[in-house]
């Protein structure tokens, strides 16, 4: 298990931003959407992910 962390002084601005998106249009063959996201602290990328879903979606809302 990695033992990583972030430490910020008490008076330091944290400024966390997170974005997510999903794509259902690109799933015309198997109807499995792709979802992704990224997280920033003080405008610096700290994490991102992208994954094709394992379940079939019936609509963009469900995806």
UniProtKB/TrEMBL annotation:
<protein>
    <submittedName>
        <fullName>Putative ribonuclease H-like domain-containing protein</fullName>
    </submittedName>
</protein>
